[in-house]
């Protein structure tokens, strides 16, 4: 029994690395887009607000798997060839960026009016007001929902199995074909691995939250 | 590039595949609502062991991918029990089970919004637990959370393409099949994307309307 598990480890390890890589890269893309779109959404410029609104509407309304298929299979047809990794990171980043933008927007708007007015009274420019006063406070509000979003993003990386990127899920499917009678154990192990990664993400987010709120509340 | 007559020729087949997508969404949602309620009630149990077990299982399901859960159900259950379940049913169970853990959180927020006096009144009137829940608590807890439940309906609808992994012939599988036949990915995948977008936007609009109605009703 234990020796079987040891035989599975090398493949699972390779898959784990790909899953972590895709999670990390698409999380960065998603967070950057979320920040940009969330800020644009409350911009004074009407066209910028409209652009960001359209982006959020489109990419929250579409199914991630369909988006992934579109990016990976249709873009080459239109002359844009992406590697599997790039297609995965782009699709996941765009999709979760749209959800993250809503978190950024609502957290910024949730900062009490008095803070905005105080910054204005001190003659801060609007960029200074955002960077020094509003955003740091909004960031603390963003952390818990962003934590949940990152766990959703990790779970979503399992979809890259469909474009045959060799992540954890893909490797488990290969192992399954080699060790058919142990199917339940393989998928059980796979579930536990995802649970552990998700728990680590959650732990890191809590530590960050504690660090940022230290001395504030 | 975009061939309208080709798009028109594959549209009927794609539209008829919507049926399986809708069936999976509707039954999955019904299961999630029912099971979510059970989880929410159990996680308020008097017994610590029941609470811990229910919360632990919910947390585990919520932190693992739906796709892997569906694979687990589809490939392991027949091996472990000898019962083979049709792919669509497996998919519905997977969807329902996964989202019941989210739905239980929604119910929980509704239940926690109820004033303590309501529980005390039920106790004072000597109501049984069943009657307390069905006549006092739930009729007040559920209407305010209907819009959030509606949002999860949209989320579940968008997750149904995952069932393509276990051979369910829904919208995405049909697009894949068409692409395998004609080697034209552009039209089928784009139509599928647009269909998902349009339907989720329509439902989102209805949910927004429901939310406004609920707000009016509860702020009076």
Q: State the CATH class of chain B.
A: Mainly Alpha
What is the CATH architecture term of chain A? Orthogonal Bundle
What fold name stands as the CATH topology of chain B? Answer: MetI-like fold
Major protein interface: A-B, 40 and 39 residues
How far do the termini of chain A sit from each other?
Answer: 51 Å
Beta fraction of chain A: under 5%
Alpha-carbon distance between the two ends of chain B: 55 Å
Secondary-structure blueprint of this entry?
The complex is a heterodimer of chains A (217) and B (220).
Chain A: H1 2-41, H2 46-61, H3 64-77, H4 84-109, H5 113-121, H6 126-156, H7 168-178, H8 183-213
Helix pairs in contact in A: 1-2, 1-4, 1-7, 2-4, 3-4, 4-6, 5-6, 6-8, 7-8
Chain B: H1 4-42, H2 48-62, H3 66-81, H4 87-112, H5 116-124, H6 129-159, H7 171-182, H8 186-219
Give an overview in words.
The complex is a heterodimer of chains A (217) and B (220). Chain A is mainly α and 217 residues long. Chain A has one domain: MetI-like (MetI-like fold). Chain A is 82% helix and 0% strand. Chain A has eight helices and no strands. The longest helix of chain A has 40 residues, at 2-41. The radius of gyration of chain A is 21 Å and the shape is flat. The model of chain A has no long low-confidence stretch (mean pLDDT 93). Chain B is mainly α. Chain B has a single domain, classed as MetI-like (MetI-like fold, Orthogonal Bundle). Chain B is built from eight helices and no strands. Chain B has helices at 4-42, 48-62, 66-81, 87-112, 116-124, 129-159, 171-182, 186-219. At the A-B interface, helix 2, helix 3, helix 6, helix 7 and helix 8 of A face helix 3, helix 7 and helix 8 of B.
Short structural description:
Chain A has 217 residues and is mainly α. Chain A contains eight helices and no strands.
């Amino acid at each position: 029994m234990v020796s079987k598990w040891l035989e599975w480890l090398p493949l699972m390890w390779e898959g784990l690395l790909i899953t972590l890589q895709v999670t990390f890269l698409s999380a960065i893309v998603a967070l950057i887009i979320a920040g940009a779109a969330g800020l644009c959404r409350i911009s004074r410029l009407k066209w910028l607000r409209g652009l960001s609104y359209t982006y959020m509407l489109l990419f929250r309304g579409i199914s991630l798997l369909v988006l992934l298929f579109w990016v990976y299979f249709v873009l080459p047809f239109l002359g844009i060839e992406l590697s599997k990794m790039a297609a995965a990171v782009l699709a996941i980043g765009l999709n979760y960026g749209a959800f993250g933008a809503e978190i950024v927007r609502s957290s910024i708007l949730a900062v009490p009016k008095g803070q905005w007015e105080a910054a204005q009274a001190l003659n801060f420019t609007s960029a200074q007001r955002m960077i020094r006063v509003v955003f740091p406070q909004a960031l603390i509000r963003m952390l818990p929902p962003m934590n949940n979003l990152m766990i959703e993003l990790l779970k979503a990386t399992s979809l890259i199995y469909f474009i045959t990127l060799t992540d954890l899920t893909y490797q488990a499917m290969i192992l399954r074909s080699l060790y058919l009678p142990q199917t339940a154990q393989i998928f059980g192990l796979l579930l536990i691995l995802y649970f552990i990664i998700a728990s680590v993400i959650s732990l890191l987010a809590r530590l960050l939250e504690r660090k940022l709120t230290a001395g504030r509340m | 590039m975009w061939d309208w007559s080709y798009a028109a020729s594959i549209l009927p087949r794609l539209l008829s595949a919507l049926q399986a997508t809708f069936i999976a969404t509707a039954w999955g949602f019904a299961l999630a609502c029912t099971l979510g309620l059970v989880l929410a009630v159990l996680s308020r149990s008097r017994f610590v062991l029941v609470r811990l077990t229910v919360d632990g299982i919910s947390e585990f399901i919520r932190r693992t991918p739906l796709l892997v859960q569906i694979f687990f159900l589809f490939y392991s259950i027949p091996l472990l029990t000898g019962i083979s379940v049709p792919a669509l049913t497996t998919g519905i169970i997977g969807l329902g089970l996964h989202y019941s853990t989210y739905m239980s959180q929604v119910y929980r927020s509704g239940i926690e919004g109820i004033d303590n006096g309501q529980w005390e009144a039920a106790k004072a009137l000597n109501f049984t637990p069943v009657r307390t829940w069905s006549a006092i608590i739930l009729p007040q807890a559920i209407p305010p959370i209907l819009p959030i439940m509606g949002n999860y309906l949209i989320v579940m609808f968008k997750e149904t393409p995952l069932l393509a992994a276990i051979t369910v012939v829904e919208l995405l599988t049909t697009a894949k099949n068409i692409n395998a036949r004609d080697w034209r990915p552009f039209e089928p995948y784009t139509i599928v994307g647009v269909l998902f977008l349009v339907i989720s936007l329509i439902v989102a609009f209805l949910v927004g309307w429901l939310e406004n109605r609920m707000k009016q009703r509860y702020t009076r």
